[in-house]
């Protein structure tokens, strides 16, 4: 809710694709990327409240199940980013992943992230619970080492930020600040590398509660 309340102000229609992964249906099938709202067609829900409602509804039809695979949802988000580039080069996407499991498709996820590093996409990961999230730190690549795919290709840029909720609960950090602190830099790196200029928008137009275009530029 806290993260969504911040980033939703940068989305014009407030419609968000929402997917579940690691969910076992009553017929025993485990899915690693399914529409959270139960629809077989559209994955979008309205607002942060819609995401929460869709999750609550999905728990009526799915039970939590392993293994924990990220590759499917990363590729799904990448597909949306690729499609958007056909019509609009000024859009940027953020994928928020909330997980309580140890990732089991590490190489597939790294390969997907390396491919996605060329796209207008950032990925925020929240680790819930007491699992060993050391692999998430590898995906985060804060050590300065860019991810390398199974074919030897290096990521164009770092697009992942990981935060364990146990550090939030212990009062060490703010989840919103920790998750979003690298996002402006990732966004600007992508846009500057492609020489994409900001739209000509009046400084009076607001981007968030009491936040003007001029204020946004100052904060960046």
UniProtKB/TrEMBL annotation:
GO terms for cellular component: plasma membrane
SUPFAM superfamilies: vWA-like
Database matches in InterPro entries: Copine, Copine_C, vWFA_dom_sf
GO biological process: cellular response to calcium ion
Any GO molecular function: calcium-dependent phospholipid binding
Gene3D superfamilies: von Willebrand factor, type A domain
Cross-referenced Pfam families: Copine
Ranges for domain Copine C-terminal: 1-198
Cited PANTHER family: COPINE, PROTEIN BONZAI 3
Annotated protein name in UniProt: Protein BONZAI 3
Annotated source species: Capsicum baccatum
């Amino acid at each position: 809710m806290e993260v969504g309340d911040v980033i939703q102000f940068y989305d014009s229609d407030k419609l968000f694709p929402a997917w579940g992964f690691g969910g076992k249906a009553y017929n025993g099938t485990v899915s690693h990327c399914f529409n959270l709202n139960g629809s077989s067609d559209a994955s979008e829900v309205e607002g942060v409240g819609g995401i929460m409602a869709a999750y609550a509804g999905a728990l009526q039809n799915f039970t939590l199940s392993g293994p924990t695979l990220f590759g499917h949802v990363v590729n799904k988000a990448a597909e949306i980013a690729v499609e958007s580039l056909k019509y609009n080069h000024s859009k940027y996407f953020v994928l928020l992943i909330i997980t309580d499991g140890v990732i089991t498709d590490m190489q597939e996820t790294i390969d997907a992230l390396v491919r996605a590093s060329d796209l207008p996409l950032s990925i925020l990961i929240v680790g819930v619970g007491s699992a060993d999230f050391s692999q998430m730190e590898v995906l985060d690549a804060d050590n300065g080492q860019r991810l390398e795919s199974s074919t030897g290709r290096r990521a164009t840029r770092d697009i992942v930020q990981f935060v364990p909720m146990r550090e939030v609960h212990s009062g060490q950090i703010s989840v919103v600040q920790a998750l979003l602190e690298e996002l402006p830099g990732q966004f600007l790196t992508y846009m500057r590398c492609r020489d994409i200029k900001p739209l000509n928008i009046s400084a009076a137009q607001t981007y968030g509660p009491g936040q003007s275009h001029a204020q946004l530029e100052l904060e960046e």
